[in-house]
Amino acid sequence: QANSQTMDEMWDSRSSDQEHPNIGWFKDAKFGMFIHWGLYSKLAGEWKGKRYYGSGEWIMNQARIPIAEYSKEAATFNPTNFDAEKWAQLAEDAGIKYMVITAKHHEGFSMYDSKVTDFDIVEATPYKKDPMKALAESTRKRGIQFGFYYSQFQDWYEPNGGKNTWDFDESKKDYQQYYNNKAIPQLKELMTNYGPLGIVWFDTPGGLTKEQTNDFIKGLRKLQPNSLFSSRVGHGLGDYRDYGDSEIPATPIKGAWESIYTHNDSWGYINHDMNFKTPREIVHLLAQVASKGGNLMLNVGPDGTGKIPEYSEKFLRETGKWLARNGESIYGSTYGLVPAQPWGVSTSKPGKQYLHVLNRPLDGKLVIPGFNANVKSVAILGGPASVPFKKRGDVLEITLPAGEAANLATVCVVNYAGKLA
Ligand code: JFZ
C-alpha cells in the first residue's frame, strides 16, 4: 500500500566483503523490540465513533482526517504512564538485544524534542518532556542497542511531505523542499542528541533518486559512522535487509537481515485487538527466523498513556524465560544446516547443531536425515547433558527425554566432528 518501490528494487543482494564494519552485533542479536508510538496510539483505532482494524498508526489516512483536526490531538496527548526504566527492563527481561522506536511516523508528529518543528511532544503536548532521552539512557545502560524509526518520505503533516493526498495535491509537492527542511535536519537531531544509535530504521522510501539517496546516506553517516541503516532507505541501499512485514525467507540467507512482526494485528496501539501471539508462537517464530540466519524484531504498541499492553508484557516475559534457558541456541547462532523437518528447525554454531523441537513427535523420537558427520554427543539445553542417539547411515535418531511438555520448544544440542555437507 505504502510502497513507492517494490522489495526487489529496494535491495541488491550484497556479499560479505561489502558489509558494514559494525554489523557483527546485529547478526548476533537475533531478537529486537520494535515500538510504534505516536498520537495514533491515543486514538487507539477509533475516530468519531468508528473503529478501524489493523495498522492503527495509519488512522489519519484510513479516516482521511484533515491535518487541522488531527493535529489538535496533540493538545491532549499526555503519556504520564510512560516509564523508560520499565520499558527497558521489560526488554531486558524478554531477552531483547536491540530496540527501535518511532521518532516520527507517517503522521508527521515528532515524539522527541525537535527544534525543526512545533509539532513535537515537547512543544505541542501537556507532557512537555522528551521520552526518547530517557529511553536512550535506560536501554543503553542495560546493554541494549537503541535506534530510531524515522519515516523519511511519508509525512502527512507537511505540505511537501509524501502521501497526504486528502489535504494536498501530490503532483504539486516539492519533496526536495521537505527533505531539506524537515527530514534531514530532524535526522541530524536524532543522530546528534541521543548518543550512539545502533540503528536508524528508515521506511517507505520515495522522492529521491538513487544518487540522491546515496548523498542522503553519506551525509548522515558522517554523524554516526557506526549506526546501521535499514534497507527501507531505498534503492537497494542500507546495511541489512528487512523483509516485508511478517515474512520469513524460504531459504537461509547469509547476509544480515531481519523479519519484522506485529505482536497483535497492528503496529500502533488498537484498543479492540486482542489477537496477541502467545509465548509459544513467539518462541517458534524466533527459532524459525534464526534457523534461516535472521533476526526477529517483534513490535509492541504502547497506548496513548505510555502503557505497554498487558499481554505484550506478560508474553514477552515468558519468552524471556525460555531464552534464559535456551538462548545459547539463538544468540550468536547462524542458520541451521539441518533443513526444516516436520518436528522443527535448526540453528548452528561451530561443531554444534541446535535442534528446535517445535512439534514434539508423540513417541519422542527425532529423526534427522542427512546428518553425514560424526556425532559425539547429544544434550538438551537446560536438561540432561547426554541423551540416547543412534546413527543408521546418515540418519540420526534421538530419543527425547520424557516430560518437557511445558517447554515452549525443547532444544537438542548435537555435538559433532567434521563437516556437515
Ligand atoms: C510500513 C509502515 O507503513 C507501517 O505503518 C509500519 O510502520 C511498518 C513497519 O512499515 O509499512 C510497510 C512497509 C513496507 C512493507 C510493508 C509494510 N513491505 O515492504 O512489505
Task: Explain what this protein looks like in three dimensions.
- The protein folds into 2 domains: 7-329, TIM Barrel (Alpha-Beta Barrel), CATH 3.20.20; 336-417, Immunoglobulin-like.
- The chain contains 12 helices and 18 strands.
- The protein has helices at residues 7-10, 24-29, 39-43, 59-62, 67-70, 84-93, 121-124, 131-141, 175-193, 210-223, 279-291, 310-326, and strands at residues 31-35, 46-47, 50-51, 98-104, 145-150, 199-202, 228-229, 241-242, 257-261, 295-300, 334-335, 344-349, 352-357, 365-368, 374-380, 389-392, 395-399, 410-417.
- The strands form 4 sheets. Strands 7-6-5-4-1-10-9-8 form an 8-stranded parallel beta sheet.
- Helix 9 (175-193) links the parallel strand 5 and strand 6.
- Helix 6 runs parallel beside helix 8 (131-141), helix 6 (84-93) packs across helix 12 (310-326) and helix 11 (279-291) packs across helix 12.
- The structure holds 4-nitrophenyl 6-deoxy-alpha-L-galactopyranoside (JFZ).
- 4-nitrophenyl 6-deoxy-alpha-L-galactopyranoside binds at residues 2-3, 7, 55, 57-58, 203-204, 244-245, 260, 267.
- One of its GO terms (biological process) is fucose metabolic process.
- One of its GO terms (molecular function) is alpha-L-fucosidase activity.
- This is alpha-L-fucosidase.
- Residues 3-328 form the Glycoside hydrolase family 29 N-terminal domain.
Write the layout of secondary structure elements.
Elements: H1 7-10, H2 24-29, E1 31-35, H3 39-43, E2 46-47, E3 50-51, H4 59-62, H5 67-70, H6 84-93, E4 98-104, H7 121-124, H8 131-141, E5 145-150, H9 175-193, E6 199-202, H10 210-223, E7 228-229, E8 241-242, E9 257-261, H11 279-291, E10 295-300, H12 310-326, E11 334-335, E12 344-349, E13 352-357, E14 365-368, E15 374-380, E16 389-392, E17 395-399, E18 410-417
Parallel strand pairs: 1-4, 1-10, 4-5, 5-6, 6-7, 8-9, 9-10
Antiparallel strand pairs: 2-3, 11-12, 12-13, 13-18, 14-17, 15-18, 16-17
Helix pairs in contact: 6-8, 6-12, 11-12
The structure holds 4-nitrophenyl 6-deoxy-alpha-L-galactopyranoside.
